């Protein structure tokens, strides 16, 4: 990938409440913390696609956040291996978009607004991802180590209406486990 493509991939266009904001990083520009924002019934533009959030069921919960990258230590696969860079949903893993979740808690295809990080899509899972644990895909092992472990992070989960999913899992905070 040449520098021009890398720069274009790093630009994220987001429409929040009728205002278009541009960011030169992967994270979506946000004006207020999640707790101060009403994102229900809002249209957003992220990841090259428009999302009408009124078409999603919304739940909010506290999650454990960690980070991973596409190296062999994180995924068990090396470049050239079959399935390298392919998520559990069959999409190409992309930093700034992909997160790994427990699909029993957050269904694949759900949009997530992670306080302090921005918008992500539930596209992957992993052996250590159980319960209220989200693994954020980052560019390098070093960035994953710097990211560290963040406990009790507020996450707003937007579940597509077409999914037959019980909201019990996020509401029941007794299931939160920090391994």
From TrEMBL:
<dbReference type="InterPro" id="IPR059180">
    <property type="entry name" value="3D_YorM"/>
</dbReference>
<dbReference type="InterPro" id="IPR051933">
    <property type="entry name" value="Resuscitation_pf_RpfB"/>
</dbReference>
<feature type="signal peptide">
    <location>
        <begin position="1"/>
        <end position="31"/>
    </location>
</feature>
<dbReference type="InterPro" id="IPR010611">
    <property type="entry name" value="3D_dom"/>
</dbReference>
<dbReference type="Pfam" id="PF06725">
    <property type="entry name" value="3D"/>
</dbReference>
<dbReference type="InterPro" id="IPR036908">
    <property type="entry name" value="RlpA-like_sf"/>
</dbReference>
<protein>
    <submittedName>
        <fullName>3D domain-containing protein</fullName>
    </submittedName>
</protein>
<feature type="domain" description="3D">
    <location>
        <begin position="97"/>
        <end position="157"/>
    </location>
</feature>
<keyword id="KW-0732">Signal</keyword>
